[in-house]
Design goal:
The complex is a heterodimer. Chain A is built from 15 helices and 14 strands. Chain A has three domains: 295 residues, no CATH class; 71 residues, no CATH class; 58 residues, Arc Repressor Mutant, subunit A. Helix content of chain A is 36%, strand content 19%. Chain A is elongated. By secondary structure, chain B is mainly α. Chain B has a domain of 39 residues: Glu-tRNAGln amidotransferase C subunit, N-terminal domain (Histone, subunit A, Orthogonal Bundle), CATH 1.10.20.60. Helix content of chain B is 33%, strand content 6%. A two-stranded antiparallel sheet of chain B has the order 1-2. In chain B, β1 and β2 form a beta hairpin. The chains are: A alpha+beta, B mainly alpha. Chains A and B meet through α1, β7 and β8 of A and α1 and β2 of B. β8 of chain A pairs antiparallel with β2 of chain B, so a sheet runs across the interface.
C-alpha cells in the first residue's frame, strides 16, 4: 500500500479590534444589543459612501510585514457579490487581484527542524452580519421558519490570510496557527480567540503519495473553532481521503463540516450555481497606496517573529519548552528573569501559568529571586508569592524570609499522627502501593499549612513506612 | 446581441430575482444595448493606457478610527419589512453561505 503525505493549506480570518468598523464609524466589537451599532453605511442604504478605517489599513500592512509579505504600492478594494441576508448591500467589500499584502513566508520550527510556510496573501475585507435561524424542524438551517439578522458585526474589519499548501501534517497546521495567533496578539491588532470567532480557520486538505509533487483534488474543512479541533479535523479528513484512494475511489471536491463531538465529517450543502462573485473594483473607494515611510515605520514596530525566538531559545531549553514559552507569550518574562535557565523556564511555563498570572505584569528580577529560593522556602509561601507575582508592588523579599520547617523533632510527631490516622493506606503502602507516598506528604503539608520541608517529610515517611 | 438570454437568467438567479419570459426578453435587449454602447471603447487602441479603477485622481482617502454615534434601534429597523426582538426578520435562508 502506498504511503501517503497530507498536503494542507489554511485560510484564516482575523477580526481586527479597531474601535470602529471598516467602512463606517459605528463602534465595533461584541456585547451590544442587536442592531444598535448600525448606520446607513453598514445597513447598505442607497446613496451612502464607505470610508476606510485608517487603523485597519495600517494594521493589515503591519500583519503583512510580520508575515514577511510584500506590501502593495497600489491596492484596490473590490466588490464580491452574493445575495444573502448577512450582506446588506448584496456584496462584500473585499480585495481581489491587488491585495495589500502578498508573497510572504512564515517560520514554523518543529521538533525535527524548521518549516517555512508560504503566505499567498493577506487582504482586508469587511465581516458579514450575524444570522440567527429560528424555528423549523430540528433547528437545521434548511428547515428554519425564518431568519433574524443582527448587523452589529456587519462591516467589522477582517484580514483574510491564505497560505500555500505547504503544511504536511495536522500537527504542523496546529503549530503554524498557534504561532500565527501569537504574532497577531503581539501586534495588538486582534484578540484572535478561536472560541469567540475573532480567529477562524478553514483548511484545504489533500493527500498524495509521499515524495510526489503533484497536487490531488482537495476538500475544504470548516466549522473548527479550536486549535485541537483543527488538528483533529485535518487528521480525520486525511484518513478519509487515504481510505478513498486506497480502495480505488476518487476524492471529490467538496466542503465538509467537522463535528468534534463525534469526529464525523459531513458534506456541506452547496449552491447549485457555480461560484460567480462578479468581482469588480468598488467605484465608491479610491485606491490604497501605503506611503513608504508608513510601511517603514510599521516594519520597525514588528516584534521578533515567534519562530525566530523558538530557534533562539531551543539550544538552552530544548524544543518543547522553547515552543511552549513562545507560543503562550511567556518567553519575554523568561528572558528577563535571571537564574538557572531550566528552573526559570519551568516556573514561568508551569507554576506561574497555573496561577493564571499575566506574564507581562511580572517583574523578572523579583521572580528570579523567588525561583532561586524555591527549595529553601515553604511551598505554601512559594505558591502564595507566585499568586502575587503580577501585583504592581510585588516584592519577593517578604516571602524569602520564611523558612521551611525542616526540623525532624518538629515534623516527626506530625508524621506519626498522619500514619496513625490512615492505617489502611499505610498497610496498602507496605503491601507495595508506593504511589500512596504522595498522599501522606499531602496530609503532612495540610497539617503544617504547607510549611514543612518536602524533602525531610519524604525521608521521614519512607523511613517509618518501611520500618 | 452583446448578452445572451441565458446570461441574463443566470445573473437574475444569482441576485435571487425571478423574471417572467417577457422580462427576460426585455432585459436581454436593454442590457445588450448598454453593453454594445460601452463596447465602443474597445474600438480604440488603448495599449499604452493604464487600467483605471477610479475616475478621481485620489488615493488614500480614509478616516481616523474614532467612533461616531450609530442610529437609534427604531431608526435602524425603520425600513425593515418585518422585525422581531430588535432584529431584521427575513424569510428562511435555504442554504449555507459559502464564503
Amino acid at each position: 500500500m502506498a504511503e501517503w503525505e497530507p498536503v494542507v493549506g489554511l485560510e484564516i480570518h482575523v477580526q481586527l479590534k479597531t474601535r470602529t468598523k471598516m467602512f463606517c464609524r459605528c463602534e465595533s466589537g461584541f456585547g451590544a444589543e442587536p442592531n444598535t451599532r448600525t448606520c446607513p453605511v453598514c445597513l447598505g442604504h442607497p446613496g451612502t459612501l464607505p470610508v476606510p478605517n485608517a487603523a485597519a489599513v495600517e494594521w493589515t500592512v503591519k500583519l503583512g510585514l510580520a508575515l514577511g509579505c510584500e506590501i502593495a504600492g497600489h491596492a484596490l478594494f473590490h466588490r464580491k457579490h452574493y445575495s444573502y441576508p448577512d450582506l446588506a448591500k448584496g456584496y462584500q467589500i473585499s480585495q481581489y487581484d491587488v491585495p495589500l499584502c502578498a508573497n510572504g513566508r512564515f517560520l514554523v520550527p518543529g521538533p525535527d527542524g524548521d518549516r517555512e510556510i508560504g503566505i499567498v496573501r493577506a487582504h482586508l475585507e469587511e465581516d458579514a452580519a450575524k444570522n440567527v435561524h429560528v424555528g423549523g424542524a430540528g433547528g437545521r438551517i434548511g428547515g428554519a421558519a425564518h431568519t433574524l439578522v443582527d448587523y452589529n458585526r456587519g462591516g467589522t474589519p477582517l484580514v483574510e490570510i491564505v497560505t500555500q499548501p505547504d503544511l504536511r501534517s495536522a500537527d504542523e497546521a496546529k503549530r503554524f496557527l498557534q504561532l500565527l495567533r501569537q504574532t497577531i496578539v503581539e501586534l495588538g491588532i486582534s484578540d484572535a480567540e478561536m472560541e469567540k470567532g475573532t480567529l477562524r480557520a478553514d483548511a484545504n486538505v489533500s493527500v498524495r503519495p509521499r515524495g510526489a509533487d503533484e497536487l490531488r483534488t482537495r476538500t475544504e474543512l470548516k466549522n473548527m473553532n479550536s486549535f485541537t479541533y483543527i488538528a483533529r479535523g485535518i487528521e480525520a479528513e486525511v484518513a478519509r481521503q487515504i481510505e478513498v484512494w486506497d480502495s480505488g475511489g476518487k476524492v471529490v471536491q467538496q466542503t465538509y463540516d467537522y463535528h468534534p463531538e463525534t469526529d464525523a465529517l459531513t458534506v456541506r450543502r452547496t449552491k447549485e450555481e457555480a461560484e460567480d462573485y462578479r468581482y469588480l473594483p468598488d467605484p465608491d473607494l479610491v485606491p490604497v497606496e501605503p506611503p513608504a515611510e508608513l510601511v517603514e515605520r510599521l516594519r520597525a514596530e514588528v516584534p521578533e517573529a515567534p519562530g525566530a525566538r523558538i530557534r533562539r531559545l531551543e539550544p538552552q531549553l530544548g524544543f518543547e519548552l522553547a515552543e511552549g514559552l513562545v507560543a503562550s507569550g511567556r518567553d519575554r518574562l523568561y528572558e528577563r528573569t535571571p537564574g538557572e535557565r531550566r528552573a526559570v523556564a519551568n516556573v514561568v511555563m508551569n507554576q506561574l501559568a497555573g496561577a493564571g498570572i499575566d506574564p507581562d505584569a511580572v517583574d523578572g528580577d523579583e521572580l528570579g529571586q523567588l525561583v532561586e529560593a524555591r527549595d529553601r522556602i515553604p511551598r505554601a509561601a512559594f505558591l502564595e508569592a507566585l499568586a502575587h507575582a503580577g501585583d504592581p508592588d510585588f516584592r519577593a523579599e517578604r516571602y524569602l524570609a520564611e523558612a521551611a520547617v525542616a526540623d525532624v523533632s518538629e515534623l516527626e510527631p506530625i508524621v506519626d499522627d498522619v500514619l496513625a490516622a490512615h492505617p489502611d493506606e499505610a498497610a496498602a503502602y507496605r503491601r507495595g502501593k508506593q504511589g500512596l507516598l504522595g498522599f501522606f506528604v499531602g496530609q503532612v503539608m495540610k497539617r503544617t499549612q504547607g510549611k514543612a520541608d518536602a524533602k525531610v517529610v519524604n525521608e521521614l515517611l519512607r523511613e517509618k513506612l518501611s520500618a | 446581441m452583446a448578452i445572451s438570454r441565458d446570461e441574463v437568467l443566470h445573473v437574475a438567479a444569482l441576485a435571487r430575482l425571478e423574471l417572467s419570459d417577457e422580462e427576460a426578453d426585455r432585459f436581454t435587449e436593454q442590457l445588450g444595448a448598454i453593453l454594445e454602447a460601452v463596447s465602443k471603447v474597445s474600438e480604440l487602441d488603448l495599449g499604452d493606457v493604464e487600467p483605471l479603477s477610479h475616475p478621481l485622481d485620489l488615493v488614500n482617502v480614509w478616516a481616523d478610527d474614532e467612533p461616531r454615534p450609530s442610529l437609534p434601534l427604531e431608526a435602524a429597523l425603520g425600513n425593515a419589512g418585518e422585525d422581531e426582538d430588535g432584529h431584521f426578520r427575513v424569510p428562511p435562508t435555504g442554504m449555507t453561505r459559502e464564503s
